[in-house]
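Section 4.2 – Deliverable D4.2 (structural model, holo form)

The reporting period included a commitment to supply a predicted holo structure for the target in complex with protoporphyrin IX containing FE. Inputs used:
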Amino acid sequence: SLSAPVNTSLVHHRYLTVDYYAKTCPQLDQIVGFVTSQTFKYSPATAPATIRLFFHDCFVQGCDGSILISSKPGGKQLAEKESEDNKEIPTGAYDVIEKAKAMVERKCPGVVSCADILALAARDFIHLTGGPYYPVKKGRWDGKQTPMASLVYSNVPHANSTIDDLLKLFLSKGLTLNDLVVLSGAHSIGFAHCKHFVNRLYNFQGTNKPDPDMDPRHLKSLKMSCPRYGGNIGVVVPFDATTPFAFDNAYYQNLQGKLGLLATDKALFSDPRTKPLVQTLAKDKNKFFQDFSSAMERLGNVGVKRGKKHGEIRRVCNMHL
Ligand code: HEM
Ligand SMILES: [Ca+2]
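Output (structure tokens):
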């Protein structure tokens, strides 16, 4: 027959369903919803942190909770969580998953994976910040593999990546150029450390001058937060200068107004392959919400594991069974 080759890392998501736990844990969505909304009240920064946590989990060994595992004390292998990229993720994101898992375990012990709880929590936080509410398909198992910090760098995007790099990375996960543009809309909320964009402020591509593609007032205000020398490395700056806690399509409008933060954000508007979609999304919030919801479903399908050979259902999320 003429059947297409099957990418085995992508097939298991066929088993994901919205009502996967309908019999075994009917209260699941409600419990996770309770914990995320309580957390959001006193710690809104946990929302963007958890969304990024989900993204980085899915891109490294698939959506399998591998990012949640802590390194063994005294062990020589560093876990994913301890990698340079993931150390930036505020610990509140790990805490909210652990808290939700503990509550779920009390109601339905040994049934629900941490990977599914993370997918649900990411969805809840998108909704809590004003974004779309979409159904989450479930049935992911937690990964049994030992997570390795050394796998993270090459599997997550960086602020100095080119659109070609990003496209290659997204294609390797079964995602598209459109998914890249649409999922980048998550930068509608949250914060970045100065080091990720400081070159654009003072020494763009070795010119010793700022990036000419940046609004001058925006440049001035970013320079105040991020001095060239002697700044505090802990300082973070909102991706969206106007509404950092509101999930909306202002991210794309900002790109058009030269208010993008990372070079990769800006590149989405300067590259002819991605610019038309940025323009469409900047105009049409409903389309952004619809496209974002389906792109998150595809993100949640990446490298899903199932069954006891590769998977487990953890009791606590930071430790293997
Ligand atoms: C496509 C290329 C992407 C690049 C180059 C990129 C890079 C970054 C960088 C450098 C930060 C700042 C981290 C820090 O300094 O603490 C960040 C934050 C963030 N990223 Fe991305 N990212 C990309 C795509 C995505 C995607 C696809 C998502 C989710 C669907 C996402 C969600 C987030 C969120 C929510 C934050 C804010 C985290 C917080 O406030 O704690 N990013 N990203
Ligand atoms: Ca993972």
